[in-house]
Amino acid sequence: MGEKKEKKSKKKAEADAPADAPADAAAAPADAAAAAKPAKKSTSNVFALFKQAQIQEFKEAFQMMDLNRDGFLDQSDLMGIWQQTGRDVDTATCDAMLAECPGQLNFTHFLNLFGEKMHGTDPESVLRDAFASFDNDKSGFLDEDYVKDLLMNTGDQFSKEEIKQTWKEAPIEGGKLDYNKFVQYIKRGKEEDE
After folding, report:
1. 3-state secondary structure of 95
2. pLDDT digits over 109-121, tens only?
């Protein structure tokens, strides 16, 4: 019975992987510049932002853009797409586009960039600045009770259950919220810190 489970898991993993992606995508960087920029683990639940049909459409678009079929979008892929539309683009523009991604631009990062643009999530610096505006002594920490009070009594008010769920993941020690670490958890996930 355990063998059947293992086979099902293996089949599911193969089905989830892009059909034309190499088995070890990290081992196939597009060029030296891409190899020098290590991919960061994407741990946010970006797949929850979109319906399955939308994800499939993004996947098809990504595969059309991945001209060299290495599982990553790089400068040559972007320049090729621009050329296919009858336009020329300079390398600085392509580099600026690629710089928005924290690491190599694989499908998950591609989807995350669309999620941020379409769903209005703020960059880390904006979130950090928002927390810092409440930090009078600029220590990087906020009193746990103060933050709870703000969340429950201002703006889009949190319920007790939402506070409970947030506090499960929040970096709180000694009654203080480390908001720099919390912003990192919000944007990149908790696993990256561990």
Report:
1. helix
2. 898 888 877 766 6
In the beta sheet, which residues pair with residue 142?
177
Q: How far apart are CA 13 and CA 45, in angstroms?
A: 18
pTM (2 decimals)? 0.43
Whether 141 maps to a domain, the answer reads yes
Domain span at residue 183 reads 124-188
The two structure tokens encoding residue 12: 């599911």
Locate 138 and state its tokens: 């600029």
Ranges of beta strands (E only) in the chain are 141-143, 172-173, 176-178
Write out pLDDT tens, residues 152-162: 998 888 999 99
Q: How far apart are the first and last CA of the chain?
A: 34
Cα angle for residues 118, 72, 23 (degrees, 5° grid): 125
The residues facing 148 across adjacent strands are none
Domain count of the chain?
Answer: 2
pLDDT band at 145 (very low <50, low <70, confident <90, very high): very high
Average pLDDT score over the chain: 77
Residue that the structure tokens 């480390």 belong to: 178
